[in-house]
Design brief:
- This protein has helices at about 10-25, 55-60, 70-80, 95-105, 110-130, 135-140, 155-165, 195-220, 230-245, 255-260, 265-280, 285-295, 315-320, 330-335, 345-365, 380-415, 425-430, 445-460; strands at about 60-65, 85-90, 140-145, 175-180, 310-315, 340, 465.
- The chain is of the alpha/beta class.
- It folds into 3 domains: about 55-195, no CATH class; about 200-305, no CATH class; about 345-465, no CATH class.
- The strands form 2 sheets. A 4-stranded parallel β-sheet has the order 2-1-3-4, with helices on both faces. Strands 6-5-7 form a 3-stranded parallel β-sheet.
- Strand 1, helix 3 (about 70-80) and strand 2 form a beta-alpha-beta unit.
């Protein structure tokens, strides 16, 4: 028997390689001289020994961030400053930022990547024009952004931003990444930005409050009697809430509890639990929102003014951002006499990874055993132990979903329950299951399709616009 018989795939591969060598020789190409693309280096925002302490480095480094609305970013600025960092929200991206993103970024990306990346480059170029050298900018500034997995291109933004910064001449500029699926503690040894529980709770609260303020602005402005009254109240509210977030004291265990737990390994666990209980019970943020509500109550409106209600759904940035990033769609609709129906889109998007992890990783793969080893039938104790671990994880995630929804409702309630509630991701998944499998993921996943169906079938608006960014 001839054991050297070649398979058809091997013969085809051999002929392809031979033809490739012929073409390379014909066109004078040297395969050993080909320079392949490599991901831009990941310059970690780590502690620099030239500073006496990490806090001193924080005091001398400015964290930049952008990509959401100015309302969210102004509140984020206050929350991050309250944690002891120097930070600056970037201006709203414009067409100049988009053109810079196209010039220095990679081809084939979408508008959010070009606008966000180009906005960073535009700001850094303005710093350079103001007298700072590139080396000083790289040393004194860093960009804080979020990252997510594919298949949506969001998972590639951080690497592409580093490439664009390098092309613009800012080699070594630090991009600090917050992993959306990384949990509530992403602290790393020597990291300047300590992404601990206090860090994430401050950011989440700023984003939830930003959603509330954004909704009330679009709900009131179409009916105001005095032009500009809503925007004036909005600016006062944002400055007030900025300070509320900035001067919020982080939760600490009382001295008595610290003494009791000093010699045990429970101190960190009790402090972790105490932070959540404090957030769920404190009236600090709801009272601040009630104060803001009084500012908006003073605006004279005509509630009988007829305005068509328009809901915008679609790609997250196109349906959320303001300014040129979505071609000033909100301003255009209001100028045409419409009321833009705004929901807590950022809050919903934050809940999406939790939903996907719970259902796709845990529930769908419940019978996938570690290392492919299924406990034998004569070991029911092992099967029960694994099943109980599974129930524990699902219970924890279900509790997290409900506590998160409860916190959103508390902030909504501070305005008298007149705002759009948090979208029920589970309901949207059920509405779309006949036409779209939410497990496909990719960006907004079933949220976009579900909202289209929901608003059309419930007659909550006169028109639904679905926006997609152009590549």
């Amino acid at each position: 028997m001839n054991w050297t018989h070649r398979q058809p795939d091997d013969v085809i591969a051999s002929k392809l390689r031979a033809r490739q060598r012929e073409l390379e020789a014909e066109h004078g190409l040297d395969p050993t001289a080909i320079s392949h693309y490599h991901r831009s280096p990941d310059y970690a925002f780590a502690y620099d020994p030239k500073y006496k302490s990490i806090q001193e480095q924080r005091d001398n480094t400015v964290l930049l961030f952008g990509g959401l609305t100015r309302k969210h970013e102004h509140l984020l600025e206050g929350a991050v400053r309250g944690l002891g960092y120097q930070c600056q929200a970037l201006p709203t991206p414009d067409l100049e930022a988009f053109n810079l993103g196209k010039e220095y970024g990679n081809n084939g990306f979408c508008n959010p990547a070009y606008f966000t990346g180009g906005n960073v480059i535009k700001y850094l170029l303005e710093l350079e024009a103001g007298g700072l050298s590139k080396d000083e900018i790289v040393e004194k500034y860093a960009f804080l952004t979020a990252g997510y997995c594919g298949p949506c291109r969001f998972g590639l933004y951080e690497g592409e931003l580093r490439l664009a910064l390098r092309n613009a001449g800012f080699e070594g500029f630090r991009v600090e990444l917050i992993k959306i699926t990384g949990g509530l503690d992403q602290s790393a040894a020597g990291a300047v930005v300590d992404m601990n529980l206090d860090f994430f709770l401050a950011i989440i609260n700023a984003l939830l409050i930003g959603d509330v303020i954004r909704q009330i602005r679009y709900q009131v402005r179409p009916y105001e009697l005095s032009s500009g009254a809503t925007d004036q109240a909005l600016e006062e509210a944002l400055d007030y809430l900025h300070d509320v977030l900035r001067y919020k004291q982080p939760y600490e265990l009382s001295p008595v509890w610290k003494r009791l737990l000093r010699h045990s390994n429970l101190e960190k666990k009790v402090a972790f639990l105490g932070r959540f209980l404090h957030l769920l019970r404190t009236s600090y943020y709801p009272e601040a929102l009630s104060t803001v509500r009084k500012k908006f109550d003073q605006i004279a409106i005509d509630p009988f003014r007829v305005c068509p209600i328009v809901k915008i759904v679609g790609e997250f940035s196109a349906a959320t951002a303001e300014g040129d990033m979505n071609f000033k769609m909100f301003e255009f609709l209001e100028q045409e006499g419409a009321e833009v129906l705004v929901d807590p889109s950022v809050s919903t998007q934050l809940m999406f990874p939790l939903f996907r992890y719970k259902h796709k990783i845990l529930i769908d793969r419940r019978k996938v055993h570690p290392n492919g080893e299924k406990p034998p039938a004569w070991r029911p104790d092992q099967r029960l132990r694994r099943y109980l671990r599974y129930l524990k994880k699902v219970a924890i995630l279900t509790l997290a979903e409900r506590l998160y929804a409860r916190q959103c409702s508390r902030y909504q309630h501070a305005f008298g329950d007149i705002l759009h509630g948090l979208a029920d991701i589970h309901t949207l998944a059920e509405m779309t299951e006949m036409i779209y499998n939410w497990r496909c993921g990719a960006g907004e996943g079933h949220l976009e399709i579900g909202k289209n169906i929901y608003y059309h079938t419930h007659d909550y608006c006169h028109m639904v616009l679905s926006l997609k960014p152009f590549g």
